[in-house]
Amino acid sequence: MSTNECREFLRKVKNADQDIRSMAISDLLSHLNTPTASLSKEDGEHYTGALIELLLDAQSYVQNLATECLGQIFKLIDKNTTLTTVTNICSRVAQRTSADGASALSVALRVMVSRVAESTEDKNFVTKLAHPIVSALSKSKELPADVNIDLFAALSEVVENVGSLLAVDGGPADAIQELLLDYSTHPNPNLVRRAFAVLGKFVVHVTGERSENALNTIFQRYQDSTKESDTAVLLGVLVAIARQRPACIKPVVSSIIDSELKTVNDCDTDLRVASLLAFETIVRHCSELASDRSSEIYAAAIKAAKYDPSYNYEDGDEDEMVSGSDGDDLEEEFGDEFDEDIYDDHDDTAWNIRTGGVRLLGTLAKSDLLSPVDAVAKIGSALIGGFKERVDIVRIEVLTTYTAILDTVKAQLGPEPEVTLTMKVENAAADAVVQQAPQAVSALLSSMKQYPKSTETKQLAFAVLSRIVSIRHSALDSLLTGVQPVVSSALAANDSAGALQMAATSIVRTNLKLDVLEFLRAFVTRNSMSDAADEFLFAVKDGIKSNVSSQTAQVPATTFSVAGDMLALLRLAADTGSQDASRYISWTQDMVALAISMASTNDLQLRVSVYDFIGTVLCQFGDLVDATIVDQGLSILTTWKNGTANVLALIHALAAALSASTHLRRERIVTAVPMILEQIDPVLRQNEVKVYTSALGIVKSLSSYGDLATPEANERIMLGVIGIIEKSPGSPPVVALQALASVSTQVSEEFIKQIASKLIRLLSVASVHDKPGSGALEQVYEAIGKSFPSIVEQWGSEILSSWKQSYEVFDKQRSAKNNDAILAQFPTSALANAAKSLLALFVGHYKAVGQAWTDAFLSDLLYVEPKSTTEVALTCLALRVLGYAAASGLLAQDPKVSTQLYSYIESSNDDVRNEAAFALGSYVGYCSGLLSTLFDNATTSTGVGATSKMLAIKAALDLAIATKRSVSTAEAMWTQITTYVQASEKPVSDVIAQILAIFVITFPDVYIPQLASCIASSSSTPAKISFITAFRTVLADKHFNSQCDAQVKLVLPTVLASISDADINVRRLTLLALYTLIQAKLELVEDVIPSIQPALFQQTVIDERVVREISMGPFKRKIDDGLEMRKVAYMCVQLLIRHMLSVVDGVALVDCVVRGIPDDPEVRVIVQHMVMETASAFPNNYVARLDDIGKAIKEVRDVKVHKSAVKQEVDKKEDSIKAAVSIAAKLQPLAKQAQLDSGLFATMIADMNNPSNENLYQYYKACTESPSASK
Q1: Dihedral through CA 559, CA 561, CA 563, CA 564, nearest 10?
Q2: What share of the chain is helix, strand, coil (3-state, %, to 5)?
Q3: PANTHER family from the xrefs (predicted)?
């Protein structure tokens, strides 16, 4: 807006006509909301000044518009104007002598500060907003409470968004804390509540001593409180702190539990609600501190959940089963979706207590205080008694909590529940659910009958039923006579029934019918069917069919989906002979007719469901339904049109119809193949990746019916597949290679010879670049080798040629004398794919000619001592093929093979030795009886192949233990390897640590404790180093999982005890392990940190025993062998500061800082960051040691550089001084606040402030004038 527009605005807002004023402000607001809005600095000042005056306007509409403008204008004005505006509003509030105008001012302040705090990136600026707010609050105690509440809200926004900065460099933290404590004694309870709420945020966001002091104040007031209302408020604040910073509240948790358990059952006010919430928070965040009192907490939760003095549930028929009810009665229950009086009990405070009890029960169930079995048996049973709760909100909470318990049990169940002890425990929880099912179902049916108009009760009831059958498919089979009428009634209800007014939980769907259908989906997702289940499905099938025509969104699509799953189950039951599917044929044909009639609907979701259902019918009932149904279904699924999404859906459905398990008659597929191929051929030539990839899946399906298609059709399809591979020859789609493998067996050898040149070229490129692990390329080569043995030699030559080219490029790059040599990388993937392809080709060939596999075809590739690049390349390829063959069990145990591989492992060529190590390792890993011999050979070998033999051991154990998971091999080899390591007086190969890690990662429950025991018991330093290195290898392994987590957490005290080991290298490696844990697995190490903290800080002390002096000509130089270890120790401390500041010992930390300032420059940089991050958190500790810090800084400053020093040494000295000055600048405000104007630190500051000390003065000014410069 222009200056003239600003003047016009200022004129209009002073007009006596309120409409003119309103229109002027509305125009300004519209401008502020435009993306291109801008204001000059001067205009911004005018606008904000005018808006503040408008907050005192007589018309509330004008006030509201002015408030909204102030909430937007800060984006267009500079920070100084924003701060001035906030200060002016605060001053106006403080100057008001009555409520007149103060409310509008305070509301505007709250809106503006909230938006500035949330959206401004300069958080240091946001801290400045606290000063005027604190000033206004200190002067406005007599104003109405709503004004001060707005001010508290504004202050709360500042604390929440920039709390960590409030205590930096003389920030307003002290003033805020003092103000809040002053208001804590205010006569108005609402203001007291607000003050403590902000003080709680202060504890959460302002770390360090101030936070601890504020927490102590809140807790002391909580303990001293005699009024229930005050206690409830203070307890609520403690709970809020615990939810956001559970670590800082842990010291007082036990006292809170003791206090609340004494009174929780004796009151019926908000205090009881707060107590229950406190227990819930403690159990969720600090469960280990509640373990001793869990039974009492559980009892309190049970009593609260049943607390209802106005009602007696025992008078009703709580356990009455409604299985005898008929459908007509139940249908009436589902006629209306709402009860107008559902929420008429909100004035009864008892419901809030019951809700708190239920939530606490749910939290207990999900904690580690109860086993899954107890959670179901104890808490589940208690909740079932509340299914008939009279207040809807509480009843919903009960059902939601019970559903969550079932979800927990369901999540823990594995596919093979009897495999391990853990699975057996989880299966026991499932057994408990099944045992409880009759009681739960009875209560659910009774609740639905008693509260027929509570739709959400019905929805959650079906959610519970869905979970029960998901946990154990047959759990409800004996109860279905009671469930069936409810299901049928819900399915038969009008479309308008079941629509939710509002959903209180995400557990349920948007419509009751969808929840019923989801229950049916869960019910039919099973691998067997009882007679009761069959009768149930037969009874509800017509209800399912009726919902196909529903006008409610998602219902028809979900209905078809559920019907498809039902047909799959019916067919499975029929094929196993347990049930007769024929009585469902008529229903199925009716459903297909409805599906066909909807196949052209505009609703894509419904159309996709229709296609899928048709595909399922053809697959499962293709041999039972009428031929016309089959013809119509195939016609729809083989007409690919109407866009990519539609074609994809059709292909997916057709793939299901043609899957290996299809019941479509073979002759019908024969007649359909030409029609299908007619659709596939053009699709394979499209550029839509998803479409042609899906079409390739159809090609794979048709390959099992290859003889049904004409050779010409198969050839045309094969050319289409080749065309797809040509689009990305370096990385062809896996499905394209799989399709090629399938269709290549269905074409003539003459055709293969015609396209051989192109195909060989493409596959040779693919064999070098294909992603490892897909196996698709090997399928192609095996199919070619098996189907066309006459061209195997030609194809093998092409593979060799491509691999030789790749290796020669690498070897040339490696031999270069420029930077190319640095970038050279061995073509590992190329070798792997070439070897797998060659092996697969000859595997197929030998199958075709009926000959047992032999490695004779490799004889021409193996050179005893390869000389040329070609010979090395071919030998490497042959050895890799042997390795893969051995791992697959193709290479029979033969002494000649062992001798041959041992000879290659002694080769003078590194590449050959590496491949020989893999081949020998794979061979021995499959023939694990040779492992012990190989290990003895490797550990006694001193020749060129010693390291390669160790790599062979690693490859062998990877196969025998990590892949084959041989327990006996692991036990024997672990003993042999650890005995060797323990007995070694010299450092062992680094590969040993990697080998030990294989055992640990594969069987963590067994070998993590054993590895920790080895670390603790090793008397040999080399052995301890190897074991700790293995432990570090485990931490970095990509297969490190939750099972490893649990074991590592248990052994950490044992492992980390080595921080105090006598050997410097052991200490360094242990500290590196600690660093990894803090950085990546903090939750594992947080409990052990307090006990190891003294040892950790001790490692920051210079150990004079490892400082040695060496002579360099006429000069002598000190070498500190402990420096690397100290650097790691300082890095660990730095991580603790960033992640666990609340547990850091302030005294030890500052001692560490004092030591670190004059230490090595690399240490000093870490110390500099530590001071920047902790000065505000430990001000008293730093103040107590300021003179020692000054002495350390002086020591750095006084270090002299030799006159002949090179530039690097001079720069290093300057960097050291800069770091020391930065530390001094950061701590100077603490000295000023403590009024320490004498002593060594003060002298150092004076020197830095003296312009005559040119460099010091410049550095110091740079740090003090720009706060970021000191960071």
Answers
A1: 160
A2: 75, 0, 25
A3: TIP120 (PTHR12696)
Query: Does residue 1268 carry a pLDDT above 50?
Result: no
DSSP 925-943: HHSGGGHHHHHHHHHH--S
Q: How do residues 380-415 score in pLDDT, each as one tens digit?
A: 999 998 898 888 888 999 999 999 999 888 887 754
The Cα 160–Cα 923 span in angstroms is 63
Structure tokens at 694: 């899906």
Pick the closest to residue 192 from 227, 242, 244, 157 (CA basis).
Answer: 227
What is the three-class DSSP state of 657?
Answer: helix
Question: In sequence order, which residues have a C-beta less than 8 Å from that of residue 897 and are 6 or more positions away?
Answer: 882, 891, 923
E strand or H helix at 1137: helix 1123-1139
pLDDT band at residue 705 using 50, 70 and 90 as cut-offs: low
Return d(Cα 213, Cα 1174) in angstroms, integer. 17
Which long-range contacts (C-beta less than 8 Å, at least 24 apart) are formed by 477-481? Answer: 477/530, 477/532, 477/533, 478/438, 478/532, 479/323, 479/437, 479/438, 479/441, 480/532, 480/533, 480/535, 480/536, 481/323, 481/532
Q: Return the sign of the alpha-carbon dihedral for residues 209, 215, 218, 219.
A: negative
According to the model, what pLDDT value does residue 334 have?
A: 44
- Which of 31-35, 536-540, 694-698 is most confident? 536-540
User: Residue 684: which of 724, 644, 737, 654 has the closest Cα?
Assistant: 724
Confidence grade of residue 581 (pLDDT, cut at 50, 70, 90) = confident
Q: How confident is the model at residue 340 (pLDDT cuts 50, 70, 90)?
A: very low
Name the residue with tokens 């797998």: 836
Q: What sign has the CA pseudo-torsion 968, 970, 973, 974?
A: negative
Q: Alpha-carbon distance 548 to 558, whole Å? A: 9
Q: How far apart are the first and last CA of the chain?
A: 40
Local confidence band at 1114 (pLDDT 50, 70, 90 cut-offs)? low
Instruction: Please state the length of the chain.
Output: 1271
What kind and span of H or E run contains 1112?
strand 1107-1112
Q: Give the integer Cα–Cα distance in Å for 878 and 859.
A: 8
Q: What is the pLDDT of residue 416?
A: 41
Backbone angles phi, psi at 326, to 5 degrees: -95, 170
Q: Please state, in angstroms and rounded to a whole number, the distance separating the CA atoms of residues 674 and 681.
A: 10
